[in-house]
């Protein structure tokens, strides 16, 4: 479902600054890069990759980056 207001109305966001975020059930959040992520403690980590996978389950040993630890292990 798309928001009626859209992302372009966000304060301070120029049309070229809009990032696509893709959510996956039982998986990571995919974000078009490059990105900077501010952690709870104020630390900022960055990636210059064209797409990054952000961990949403907190099982990753490389948090906030996803390392596929969310997958069921047999």
TrEMBL record:
Keywords, comma-separated and alphabetical: 2Fe-2S, Iron, Iron-sulfur, Metal-binding
In this chain, composition skew of type Low complexity spans 1-16
Domain Iron-binding zinc finger CDGSH type, by residue range, is: 32-74
Q: Does the keyword Iron apply?
A: yes
Entries under SMART domains matching the protein: ZnF_CDGSH
Q: Where is this region: Disordered?
A: 1-23
Which InterPro entries does the protein's record reference? FeS-contain_CDGSH-typ, MitoNEET_CISD
Name used for this protein in its record: CDGSH iron-sulfur domain-containing protein
């Amino acid at each position: 479902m798309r928001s009626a207001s859209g992302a372009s109305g966000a304060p301070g966001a120029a049309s070229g600054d809009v990032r696509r975020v893709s959510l996956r059930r039982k998986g990571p959040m995919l974000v078009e890069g490059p990105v900077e992520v501010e952690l709870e403690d104020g630390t900022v980590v960055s990636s210059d990759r064209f797409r990054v996978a952000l961990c949403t389950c907190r099982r990753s040993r490389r948090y906030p980056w996803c390392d596929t630890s969310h997958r069921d292990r047999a």
